[in-house]
Amino acid sequence: AQSVTQLDSQVPVFEEAPVELRCNYSSSVSVYLFWYVQYPNQGLQLLLKYLSGSTLVESINGFEAEFNKSQTSFHLRKPSVHISDTAEYFCAVIKNAGGTSYGKLTFGQGTILTVHP
Amino acid sequence: DAGVTQSPTHLIKTRGQQVTLRCSPKSGHDTVSWYQQALGQGPQFIFQYYEEEERQRGNFPDRFSGHQFPNYSSELNVNALLLGDSALYLCASSTGPSGNTIYFGEGSWLTVV
User: Fold this and answer.
1) What is the pLDDT of residues A53-88, one digit of tens each?
2) Residue B84: is it exposed, middle or buried by C-beta count within 10 angstroms (0-12/13-18/19+)?
3) Shortest Cα distance from A94 to chain B (angstroms)?
4) Cβ–Cβ of A44/B45 closer than 8 Å?
5) What domains, with CATH codes, occur in chain A?
6) What is the pLDDT of residues B1-28, one digit of tens each?
7) Do B43 and A109 touch (CB under 8 A)?
8) Considering only Cβ atoms within 10 Å of each terminal Cβ, which end of chain B, N or C, has fewer?
9) CA dist B60 to A42, A49, B107, Å?
10) Res B98: pLDDT
11) CATH of domain B5-112
């Protein structure tokens, strides 16, 4: 079975400061990795994903995440946050079997990012 | 391009009642999964439907059942509601049961009183 641990339940930060949201996973098989964002009272939006290739993946709104296989981590970072980044962020994994996923996401508990002016 | 749509957005039910939640997948997607997100928790996988059959199931009791229609839309049914069933129910869709790009709807908020 897979498990995902998000090391911080809440991260407060000031606007324009850098931020890192930490994610570690455990799995006996290879996985694909994802970050989803959930704004208040809304569903989940896919932020970025790692399937293969370059271990550094980027989103269109300035977030990036790096897959570290040896440390089984997939931390999310942004060099300068905005008020609008305030949301809950979820790290998730899917089992990868030879390039094919099993289609079932396993999520972490979430990290609430609060950006203060 | 319509994304994943769910209905209703909010509902309140009494313990012991039954509820049906509905989902239409994103255009071009043929696989639907359902997740339960309790307050303050990450989403938990309930089950996945593809070709009108349940393909995978998470650790949920038989009170949770589903259906997929020929147009790929899906329903989630929960019988004998418990207070602990109060949660946000999220529908997700993908292309094929092994699809690794999964899109979510806005969810249905269920409150059991």
Assistant:
1) 889 999 988 999 999 999 999 999 999 999 999 999
2) exposed
3) 8
4) no
5) 3-116 (2.60.40.10)
6) 679 999 999 999 999 999 999 999 999 9
7) no
8) N
9) 24, 27, 18
10) 78
11) 2.60.40.10
